[in-house]
Each structure stands twice: as C-alpha cells, then as structure tokens.
Amino acid sequence: MQLVRDFDIVKTAVRGAKTAVLLALATACTSTPATTATAFGAQSPDSTLTAPLRLQLEITVTATIDEVLTGTALAEANRTMGIPEDTSPTLKLWSADLQDHFGQQDVKLLECEPKPTRTEIDPENGNRIFLWDFSRDLKSSQTLKVRRRYTLTNCFYDPHVTSATVGNYKPDDSQVAFYTASEPYLELTDDITSAARIAVGDETNPLEKARRIFQYVRKHMTYAYPPPGGRGASIALACGKGDCGQYADLFTALCRAQGLPARMGAGFHLFFSKSGDGQTTVGSHAWAELMLPDGSWVPVDPTVDEDRYFARKLDNTHITASVGRNIRLPEAPESTTYALTEMEHGRTPFMQSCTEFLSGVKGKVSVSRRAVKLNSAD
Length: 378
Description:
The protein is α+β, with helices and mostly antiparallel strands. The protein contains six helices and 19 strands.
C-alpha cells in the first residue's frame, strides 16, 4: 500500500494569484466491550479493543509571512480571490481536535500554544474545530507557530458485526438522510448511481451491499498520487485511479447511491521505525465509515486490499482527525468557492492537520507531525 508520507508538507501562498488552503490534507485499551457513543456517533456495543499502543503525537503549523500587501496590490489580490476588495490581510488556521473514536482511546491534549481564538463543535459531524485568527497582528518578515501535543492509546478496533444481525434502516432517520445525500465531491450522478447498482447486483442486506461496493472499488481503482484529474467520486469512477481520498470518496458515494449512509474519515497513518527507537513517521491518510441500521459506525479502508479492513479490524496505525466531507468552519469566508480555492461557502473539503486561509499577504504555511511510541500499554 502506498500512502502520502509528507512529514513536512509545504504549500506556498502568493496572494494575487490563488488562495492556498492547506489540508495536509490515549489510558489503556482492553478486550472488553467499548462504550457505545462518542462525539463522532455510536459504536458497536460488541466491539473489542486489542493490541494497545501508547503514543505521543505532536502537530506543529508554521506560517511564514514574507510581505503584507497594502493599497492597490491588496485590492487586486482580494478581487482575484473573490472576496471584497477592502478585506484586510488575513491569516486564519483551523484544525480538528483529536477525540476518542474507534480504537483511538483516552485522547488527552497536553499542550496547545497559543490557545485557540475560538472552539466550535461541527453540528453535522461532531468534529471539534479549533480556530486561530492571527489577522490583527500580521507583519512582513514574520513567523507564527501553532503547536499541539497529545497522548493517546491506539488499539486494533473490531466492531464484531455480521450481516445476520444488521437489520434495516429506518426511513425517517435524519442521520440516514444526511449521510445518503449528494454533496460536493460525493455527487450522486447517473454514472455513480449506475455503478452502484452494478456493484451491488441483487444483494439486499445492507452490510453485504456495502461489502460488494468495497470489492468493486478495490477492483476498479489503482493507486496513484497525486490523483489524476482532480478529486471527487465521479473523477475516481471515470479514471479508475487515485489516492486514499479517492478510494474513500468512491466507496462513500456508491454507498450513498444505494441508500447506505457513509462518510469519509480523515487523519493519519503511522509508519514505525525498524530501528526500535520509538520514532514514528506520520503520513496523511483517508478512509471511509459506514453507518449501520442500529446507528453505529464501522470503519472501512478500501485503499487496503484485505477483507479485514471492511467493517472489521481497523488497526492501531490509524489516527482519526475528522469525519465527513465539506466541513463547516467557524468564521470562514463565505464568498470563496472551490473553483478558486479549497474552501467554499465557509466549508473545507476535509481536514487532517490543518486548513488555512491566507489573503492579502505573500507567504507560506507548513505542517510537521511527529509521533513517539511510548510503550505497548499492555
């Protein structure tokens, strides 16, 4: 499996051309049944957690401001970005706070410097979003940093679900309605609907329908980074190539076309050092989640060609940062669109390390992530 291993991701933002939005983009576990609810939704009451791994994770965002624009240069840059000409130079950073989810347990935020300007819960998906607004203090030749440090225990998560016990969805369930709707990157086009019908065939059981879609995506897709042609389920279906995000989008859209509520999970994948020094590379990763008729969520990683990654064991190398697509951000500009930026109507496509909005300045934003294995937590 090939994944993005961008230990230091840098995107240069020269305003007057295009907005750069960077999406780069816990105590012990036991083998007893997990709790049934988290901020991200219910989890199977029969789930088990094994192979606990104690980690410390550090995420640092660095913004380097080369020049703050003024006068005509500022007005022209703002026009190009589709925001009002009189908008003052702006730097806003958003990041999802890590939370307990699946095998990700006892998450603790040990350090956050500086403190967020604002914290808000995403009402649609349950993400806890931090906002840092540096706009009032921007200066040329300036470096700004946001540093967070967490501890967590990561486990193998097995929901223990079977097709014999899943039941059927309730037609009036608001969660089902929300997670089966068409939205940007997950458009339920005629081609998506047709492909979903072919993938599922005559199967009627919700879990088995999703399994057939998982198998269809595995056969249809070939890994390619960067994804050719752009992002979104329709592009993934058309070209049959893409990275983990494209696999997740295609699986999610095909499920939705069949009335199966599904969403993206975004975060990180751990690559352990073979030297035994505890150092771990933290790569970006995305997968999918399927909601069962009882309201519980199960993980699905279609990038991995193994059956155990369908509604079964999510290993202890996955760390979830956020769930859902087109996540609403507090105090995000409403006038920008995905055509000009990676932010539209106050939403970001998905979130891993950070999303940034930088306007009226020339500069760059970089993200570094570092994880250290503390012990096995056995």
